[in-house]
Design brief:
Bound molecules: adenosine-5'-diphosphate
Oligomer: single chain
Helix content: 25-40%
Number of strands: 15
Structural class: alpha+beta
């Protein structure tokens, strides 16, 4: 999706990928094979490019620092990436800045759990400080024996852990900010996400919250962008609990919660990521309709041939379908559908209808009278 944006800006991209099967490698004109953890692979790429950027956070900050020391430009920088990679570093930094985070602590010994739970109650949430994604690395434990056994196993396996109070949240929100090295900021409308099993299922914008809360969310996100010296897109994930905002975590790259910006906003997060890292003027983030909704296509155990189902889903008026060309492994995001609408429900109905035609065991195509009313968007 970044490459799509780069095409319009005539910005050549050289890609480092682990295999030619990766989504981006299937379409990038210039692919080198290598691991993101390989200093040699990154160095060879950096020598051919005016700048490096990243579509995931699993890059060793030590390698990144060496590249910076050798004079290469990395956006985001090694320092910013180190913060994004580590939930413990993030929380400590945000707390120092006076930003709201859930009660938490680093967990050195399983025995410390009892004390934490005495102060904050059960359940507690154990999180791998580094390396998790899509809920891998997040465990909710509702009693001392379960939590202690789990923590002991994880610590013995060398997993750095934090423990966090379980937040009884009303909503999950995300704010995307594009930030350029010269300090330019562009903030997207607050997005509301629906997660299940630690995976984002749906995202809608604007979030159904009052304008004061939306403003607070935006202030938290812009403060973080500046504090971590972000370059490009960052996403700040927030919990809304008891009418108050708490920061969950950040991502320093184009993010799933911003995919709806491709069709939903004047400038997509991918284009603004490029504009930001290149220090070009940032594009308007305004919504192009009263509401936008995105539904993720998440692979299940059932074998599905997405390309063969595509035509029937394309019949849903107003549904924008994105398939990633990924192998169907259960729990994997293999595409998404976006729709715009006069309201959230209308946009969601359109996107869900197309998503169901792609992912569920439905027979045939939808008839004219089953088509969602996409109210002209
Ligand atoms: P990942 O880094 O894998 O995305 P997150 O830390 O974002 O993991 O957690 C995944 C999901 O788990 C969140 O979106 C949220 O739904 C739930 N979750 C995480 N932390 C808490 C918490 N402290 N209280 C309640 N639910 C939580």
């Amino acid at each position: 999706m970044t490459i799509q944006a780069a095409i319009s800006l005539a910005t050549p991209i050289a890609l480092l990928a682990t295999s030619h099967d990766e989504s981006a490698a299937q379409i990038a004109p210039d692919v080198s094979l290598g691991r993101a953890g390989s200093p040699e692979a990154l160095d060879a790429l950096a020598r051919r490019c005016s700048m490096l950027t990243f579509d995931h956070e699993q890059v060793d900050p030590g390698i990144m620092r060496d590249l910076e020391a050798a004079g290469h430009t990395l956006r985001p920088s090694a320092r910013t990436m180190a913060i994004a990679q580590d939930k413990s570093l993030q929380r400590a930094l945000f707390q120092r800045e006076g930003l709201p985070v859930p009660p938490w602590q680093q967990l050195q010994r399983a025995a410390d759990l009892a004390e934490f739970a005495r102060s904050h109650g059960w359940p507690v949430v154990l999180k791998a400080a580094r390396g998790g994604y899509d809920g891998r690395g997040v465990w909710v434990a509702d009693s001392q024996p379960t939590a202690a056994a789990l923590a002991a196993d994880l610590l013995a396996a060398g997993v750095p852990l934090i423990v966090e109070a379980w937040v009884p949240m009303e909503r999950e929100l995300a704010v995307l900010v594009a930030r350029s090295p010269s300090g330019g900021l562009a903030v997207y409308p607050v997005v509301e996400t629906v997660q299940a099993g630690g995976i984002c299922r749906e995202a809608v914008a604007p979030a159904s919250i009052d304008s004061e809360l939306a403003q607070q969310a935006i202030e938290i996100a812009t403060t973080i962008a500046t504090t971590i010296d972000a370059a490009g897109i960052i996403a700040v994930e927030l919990f809304l609990a008891g009418g108050k905002l708490l920061i969950n975590e950040i991502a320093t790259r184009p993010h799933n919660s911003g995919h709806l910006s491709i069709e939903g906003c004047c400038t997509s997060q991918f284009e603004n990521h490029l504009r930001a890292i290149l220090d070009w003027p940032l594009g308007s983030t305004e919504l192009l309709a009263p509401a936008a909704a995105m539904v993720n296509l998440i692979a299940t155990e059932t074998a599905i041939e997405l390309p063969s189902r595509l035509p029937r889903a394309l019949a849903v008026k107003g549904a924008h379908i994105h398939l990633y060309g990924k192998e169907m492994r259960p729990g994997r995001k293999v595409g998404h559908v976006t729709a715009l609408g006069a309201g959230i429900e209308a946009a969601l109905t359109t996107a869900r209808t197309a998503a169901a035609l792609l992912m569920e065991e439905l027979e045939g195509t939808i008839s004219e009278d089953q088509r969602p009313l996409n109210d002209g968007w």
